[in-house]
């Protein structure tokens, strides 16, 4: 029996879905009322007005085919116009005075600046009546409220489509079909159903694979098979749980975001589901930045209006080919224009041949950490390389002040845990690595150390 909406519920649904058709309403009902559906904890919607739907479609067409990048040793042609507009319209920059002549003399900003006063970074032109915001915690100790807009949220799909097109995937699902399922695996997470108006109101569901969110754990496979989504997006933790389910669905592509995806786990997923698994480097403050392409040797940039610098700890550009902190200018969020925003992530930058976009090499999240071995210091990238042949969804490696190494992972008490410990002992020496169970399911700091010199 289909539950009847109250007048208040119907009004709220119209606010969440201003352009909702009968077909879109039927899709929402299907997602919510399927016998195996989970307990959806929240309500969300696209909130796009009719003219905004067309604007987003136009934006997608432009992004998919746009050239991304700038000359090696140079800067994008649009860069200084963007700086001048930002200085004129954003309170934080307006109070700094005139625009510096040299881009490199602009002060950098970080997550801490946004956490202190996000309103100072919102342009005067932002329509506050249409603004939305969401909270993010991250691993840096600076919780954020990100200023955004329904159009900005809808624009994410354009960059995902660009990434998919690189691997030969063109989305086709529309009315009456489920386009995207977003996966989580946490004791509690934001879950909802929606539709995507730029894709014919195809269905979208954010679900939590944690068993307590379902009437029966078996319902997870039943529900996912019934939805048969074209795209499944998640992180290595939720994908590791997905591999345990007796699924028959065959998505066109899997998108991994927010955490390091080791090659062995990616290979397992590709073999199981018979589709590409794309590792997308994405941040809440910036959106989708790059997609990993083994043929290019790293993460290929996706945004035409995003300039990337690599800076040393003092804020100076590093020499070509050297590793530095990824620092970005531009972006597609017109509610939060970015000027030299230090992401806390590190890589080196390479320029491809011809029209190919610049590539981030050796991408690692947060500040780099050095580990001391019996033969000297090594980089956290060496730790990643030692573990990359194992299908580990998530891990943490900590070095104590006495040099002992603690490897934390959920599979600590399994053969996989022993294999991981032995892989690290090849770096640190026999008996130097202890295993502990990783209990945190989100926002774990992957690399840490108590040793002097580890962060220098």
Automatic annotation (TrEMBL):
Residues 136-331 form the AMP-dependent synthetase/ligase domain. Signal peptide: none annotated. Pfam families: AMP-binding. Gene3D superfamilies: N-terminal domain of ligase-like. InterPro entries: AMP-dep_synth/lig_dom, ANL_N_sf, CapK_Type1_Caps_Biosynth. PANTHER family: CAPSULAR POLYSACCHARIDE BIOSYNTHESIS PROTEIN (PTHR36932). This is AMP-binding protein. It comes from Duganella dendranthematis.
